[in-house]
Queue: 3 jobs
Job 1
Amino acid sequence: MKASMKGGEKARLAVIRLILAAIKQVEVDERIALDDTRTLQVLDKMLKQRRESIRQFSDAGRQDLVDIEEAEVVVIQDFMPQPLSEAEVDGMVKSAVIESGAESVKDMGKVMGLLKGTMQGRADMTVVSAKIKAALPQ
């Protein structure tokens, strides 16, 4: 935050303040101090909101607002852990399906439960969900 202030990066500073406000809001609402896992969940939620906004603004033809949201996504992603590669996600899905003993799409919750903690903030869970569905027999 201080580096952004000193560097005159007003847009980055605004996003950092949004992140801190979101974290503080959760801490106040739930009367807890957030650990790293919960903080990643807050950041992941912020990313999902931005992506949804980008989609809606694109549909409405508002490129100016799309650009603002995309800039915010870049800043938020700076605070996220290194994303998993496609191959890593595929490997983790396959091993989780085997480990959970999932036999059909009905057992998808078991597989998601195993993967959610390790993939939180490192992979788009909607993509992971689609990969799990594809890996499980109907």
Job 2
Amino acid sequence: MEKKYSCMQLTALVVLRILIGWHFLYEGIAKLLNPYWTSAGFLSDSKGFLSGFFSWIAETPSVLKVVDFLNIWGLIAIGVALIAGFFTRTAVVSGMVLLLLYYLANPPFIGYSYTSPAEGNYLFVNKNLIEMFSLSALLFFPTGKIIGLDRLLLRKKTAD
């Protein structure tokens, strides 16, 4: 059962994909350009049931170096892919996993306080959760096949 979506609906979804892509790309580049950036503070401030794991990462220099590298370049790759509409589904799922890890590292639960400044007081719902569920909505709409490089790949695959 194929549904037709209006131009406005599709435009809103494509714009959402590009905006989230921009956010990922910006965060990755900002971290890349700051020679002093590390995730150690964020990870060592972790609360919740995975705090031991995140603290271990922060306290193990070789692992922290790999995690920082993957975090920076993962953000950049996901951002570029979302903006360009290239391997969109892979980028969406990767972004959701990364945001879930951020959420689990510092969940906004009652009784948890963090040393890092927050953008406000949250109760269960924060920007990571909202952005993760926005990406989950994009998972069900092939926006890269509407406007993006995935459309070119689809044409080439169909032509073969």
Job 3
Amino acid sequence: MFWLIVLAVFIFACWLLSSVLLPFVAGLALAYFLNPLTTRLEHWGVDRLAASLIMIGCTLLLIILLLLLVIPILGAQLAAFVERLPEYIVKLQTLATSEGATWLRGVIGDRLPNIQGSLSQLATQGAAYLLSLLQSIWTGGQALISLFSLLVITPVVAFYMLNDWNRMVAKVDSWLPLNNRDTIRQLAREMDAVIAGFVRGQSVVCLLLGSFYAVSLTLAGLNFGLVIGFVSGLVTFIPYVGSLTGLVLATGVAIVQFFPDWTMIAIIVAIFFFGQFVEGYILSPKLVGDSVGLHPVWLMFALLAFGYLMGFLGLLLAVPLAAAGGVLVRFAIQQYLHSPLYTGEEPGASEHNVS
């Protein structure tokens, strides 16, 4: 009951303070991500304070370079892609419903013009909605305040947490109840292994895949190849969703741009199949591992649920909480399987029988 009350209070506090927690949660996530590298520098003889300053400084430098060099290009390509999305869909419909596409007419029949008009209208409305959403995100006052807090407060929070990480862990460990300390430590180690294996490993996978897709599609001459590749790599955080999304977008743009040159279309498709081969057989086994224990359906549910409840803050909390929840659920199932509720035995019955 105590731990259930603690969990309920934690969830209520996160929901109540969701509008101000974002830079602090982002700082905690950044400190958690950088802690292994900082600890390694410390083992090499660098003072913890200096190691924390070095890691935060390098991270800030990388973020500034991204903001100055990459983000403007991605933003311009994304806005142009959303604006031209209805045109691309109309061209795809024209190619699919041309006189040569008799197979489609044979399946749909006389309803083809009505379906084509409905799809065109739906695509136009969807593109207009996405464009207005992007504009509101970039121009909204609250978004600007959140961006300012992320750029200013998050590095400060991350530095203090990174510098005091070992002391904070030791202090929290000293608060654990003595009777359950070993069990809680074991659960915490399992949670850390799952979160570290997925968040750190999958982040590196997303970065490598996004860079590969963006560079390869751009060199292949695909329109909006940079933004399609970057989005594909970013959404790879959700297993199978990122690769499928990128493949559909890139293939659709390639058909509109290169048709009837099937060689170029095949090259675009081959880029994604090669990326998936490298991810499945090289990157994920080496960087993420097989013992993560996060099912894709559970992960997608957590992202959608927490994102709906708490916005961007929920997206940051979704993966760690889903991983921690998975560990706790597995522990609860093991406790249930060894309990009298499952076995049907009275407490102490086995000891009584032995005696």
